[in-house]
Predict the structure.
Amino acid sequence: MSFQSGRHFLQIPGPTNVPDRILRAIDRPTIDHRGPDFKDMVFDVLDGLKSVFKTSGRVIVYPASGTGAWEAALVNTLSPGDRVLMFETGHFATLWRALAERLGLEVDFLPGDWRRGADADEIGAKLEDDKNHRIKAVCVVHNETSTGITSRIADIRQAIDANRHPALFMVDTISSLASMDYRHDQWGVDVTVGGSQKGLMLPPGLSFNAASEKALAASNSAACVKAYWSWDEMLKTNETGFFPYTPATNLLYGLRESLRMLDEEGLDNVFMRHARHGEATRRAVSAWGLEIIPRDDREYSNSLTAVLMPEGHDADAFRKIILERYNMSLGNGLGKLAGRVFRIGHLGAFNDLMLAGTLAGVEMGLSLANVPHNIGGVEAAMKFMMQSVTTEQGGGELTRASA
Ligand SMILES: *Cc1c(COP(=O)(O)O)cnc(C)c1O
């Protein structure tokens, strides 16, 4: 590709733009991970993570992508042949299912059309039928990154409780953690899976398991084979501020900085910022006359928006034009949505002008690719951003002037 001036716009829904503060934090000498300076950082980071997951329990950090933490959640709590209930929200739910099956678990996959979130009523009905409690875990993707659909986790918890079902509850928050409200303890989640490269604004390479007491108890009898992913060694060594093997030291520097930044902004303000950018993006898409994937407005994702290409237009050709002309990467369609969908990431280190620039790139791209649309999407987003203000400190109320 020819020389591109200025900054690349990395508007895929993860990895996200890594802020300079985090890059600078990472750009320091690697220290002895068994030396005296290391443990203070570890205590700092493990403590800070608790506020992000909203848990008073343990959070485990792996030097791995999110997929590793998926595997860790399952092998630490389950035994081969155990039945697991999952819901087909989209591509990532489908991948988690395939991983579970490879581990020897029996997956009951509730079918979905990739345009709705995990249905609490359907999950409840399955659990009600499961009188002998053969289902050992319910696994749900909180924010399905292939479709921009957010499932309502508290409702699913209620469905489990209403049936007094003892199954563990596991939730993938890889593309929602630190972007959208999430409450590990309050929502009674047993294992929450997270990753570094989305809302936490870090490069790829770290992933997380937040574990409840119930999950820790299950780990004592879980018979899935594990070594590297084993929680027990990790938890024991973490108590002294260390890791059982070499951790990703420099990414931990970055994580410490990320947690500081989230704390300075305030998590509620972070969520509000994402909510504003989600709404502004949806207004732009609607002004263009294009369609987003989610059908239910209670399930709109605030970290990304997946847009359906009009019939006969190739989403990948469109993304290629935008990359070459405007130096911006948009997310591709995944799985059965390949070529039919493009995804706009609006999560992580992001602000109003970055969103305006992103949407301008999309709008110009639509014209260049001769995709039928109305102009005025950027304008609709700008108007919404001007009229909606967040309260200055810890407010959390989105003031929305009528458009
Ligand atoms: C990105 C993502 C994953 C995969 O994580 P990797 O870091 O690529 O292994 C899993 N689930 C969701 C919801 C994601 O957004």
In short: The domain at 21-263 is CATH 3.40.640.10 (Aspartate Aminotransferase; domain 2). The longest helix spans residues 267-288. The chain has a mean pLDDT of 96. The pocket of pyridoxal-5'-phosphate is lined by residues 14, 65-67, 92, 141, 143, 145, 172, 174-175, 195, 204 (CB under 6 Å).
